From TrEMBL:
Organism: Gottfriedia solisilvae
Signal peptide: none
Hydrolase keyword on record: yes
One cellular-component annotation, GO: cytosol
Catalytic residues of the enzyme: E378 (nucleophile)
Keyword Hydrolase: yes
Gene behind the chain: bglH
Top-level taxon of the source organism: Bacteria
Gene Ontology terms, MF aspect: beta-glucosidase activity
Protein name from the UniProt record: 6-phospho-beta-glucosidase
Length: 479
């Protein structure tokens, strides 16, 4: 039950979120270049590759790569956007594929066909008064930049990314007001290949490589903020964090400190992007681990002067931390993050712990820490939806999941947290980033496709489609 009949702000941005590499398909059409995610197969090898254990940067014969067709949003975006409009979306979070604009990443001129594609997508959204919320880089570094430069290990990436972002800001300045730089930037530490195109070599010191790459991304992000503010004066640009509060497993002080430490692994990035400087705990970590972060003379000034306007984040689950070896032996997988099982929570089919109140906790923690507007840009339930003989999908479990999270989001607003909007992950079924599966479905709209790539790609409205339509129409009053 809601303790307060909180009204969502009048201009609250209800919508959904997709990513180019999980939805578009057409992986080499329209002049697009190959990207990191295009090399990730479905199956047992996917996770190891995501972690940076990459033996080849070429496609292999006889291997199914789910991103190559995905759900064919590239050819079907008008149909899909019409369905989003029918639900009443106020916004759609989506990403631009870097390699559609600069196929090699270091090209001297952009690919006009790629630019025109996103012109068409944004025009279609605006036709229905749906605000585009655009992530500039969502897990898709052009492969050429990995091969030639080592991706974000190399400082040259800052120049390539700055050129790319300036190009899209100039092109879409009349169409896009809301931007984000790097999707789940903290994923760089946990899954470096999918997060940042980083291949870890046997002779490299992993922590040194990752934190140097992080510095390059942080400077690049700040330069993108600078460019956005100069080119789109009425625009807003944020960062994006894979969030989820970490609870101490017990009240033992060691567990409490471990939880703080685990949260700081992620907050580190947003501390820099939002506050404009490296926090003291990070400097201590670098010193104690003998990490030498190479900076150029203007880097600190760039970080300080170009902080983000809002904090975008994903929330799927909370996590638990312990220092007890016996407890640590019972780690549960959940998304990329392994966590101790919380005995007070239920789990999804994929072992993700379901914690609606954790969303309120996370919102309050982020608001208390940064005092900036928040944007919940990913949240949802992956489930194996079953199509009935009559051709319908009764996904009451998804409705219950979302309703419980919306209630806690309303409580966070009542707590005084400034939340710009909410975009549920995968409003239409798409390829899972973590597993490459299609059967791990999040959408309000079913897509007829299976894990092997078979199916008609027909779109079918689920029961949750009409439920979310009602939530948006009532601006959350009908919870």
């Amino acid at each position: 039950m809601r303790t307060n009949q909180t009204r969502f702000p009048e201009n609250f941005l209800w919508g959904g979120a997709i990513a180019a590499n999980q939805a578009e398909g057409a992986y080499l059409e329209g002049g697009k270049g190959l990207t990191t995610v295009d090399l990730l197969p479905i199956g047992k090898d996917r996770f190891s590759l995501m972690l940076g254990n990459v033996d080849s940067l070429e496609l292999k014969d006889g291997v199914y790569y789910p991103s190559h067709e995905a759900i064919d949003f590239y050819h079907r975006f008008k149909e899909d956007i019409a369905l989003f409009a029918e639900m009443g979306f106020k916004c759609l979070r989506l990403s631009i594929a870097w390699a559609r604009i600069f196929p090699n990443g270091d090209d001297s001129a952009p690919n006009e066909e790629g630019l025109q594609f996103y012109d068409q997508v944004f025009d279609e959204l605006l036709k229905y008064n749906i605000e585009p919320v655009v992530t500039t880089c969502h897990f898709d570094v052009p492969i050429n930049l990995v091969e030639k430069y080592g991706s974000w290990k190399n400082r040259k990436m800052i120049e390539f990314y700055e050129n790319y972002t300036k190009t899209i800001f100039e092109r879409y300045k009349e169409k896009v007001k809301y931007w984000m730089t790097f999707n789940e930037i903290n994923m760089l530490l946990h899954a470096p290949f999918i997060g940042a195109g980083i291949v870890i070599k046997d002779d490299e010191e992993k922590k040194q490589v990752l934190y140097q790459a992080a510095h390059h991304q942080l400077v690049a992000s700040a330069l993108a903020v600078k460019a956005c503010h100069e080119i789109i004066p009425n625009g807003q640009i944020g960062c994006m964090l894979a969030a989820g509060a970490t609870y101490p497993y017990t009240c033992h002080p060691n567990d409490i400190w471990e939880a703080i430490d685990k949260d700081r692994e992620s907050y580190f990035f947003i501390d820099v992007q939002s506050r404009g400087e490296y926090p003291g705990y990070a400097k201590r970590y670098f010193k104690e681990n003998n990490l030498q972060i190479r900076m150029e003379k203007d880097d600190e000034e760039i970080l300080k002067n170009h902080t983000v306007d809002y904090i975008g984040f994903s929330y799927y689950a909370s996590r638990c931390a312990s220092t007890d070896p016996e407890v640590l032996s019972q780690l549960a997988e959940g998304n990329i993050f392994a966590s101790i099982k919380n005995p007070y929570l239920n789990e999804s089919e994929w072992g993700w712990q379901i914690d609606p109140q954790g969303l309120r906790v996370t919102c309050n923690q982020l608001h208390d820490r940064y005092q900036k507007p928040l944007f919940i840009v990913e949240n949802g339930l992956g489930a194996n939806d079953v199509l009935s003989d009559e051709g319908s999908i009764n996904d009451d479990y998804r409705i219950e999941y979302l309703k419980s999270h919306f209630i806690e989001m309303a409580e966070a607003i009542e707590d005084g947290v400034d939340i710009l909007g909410y975009t549920s992950w995968g409003p239409i079924d798409l390829v899972s980033a973590g597993t490459g599966e299609m059967k791990k479905r999040y959408g309000y709209i079913y897509v007829d496709k299976d894990n092997e790539g078979n199916g008609t790609l027909k779109r079918i409205k689920k029961k949750s489609f009409y439920w979310y339509q009602d939530i948006i129409q009532s601006n959350g009053e009908n919870l």
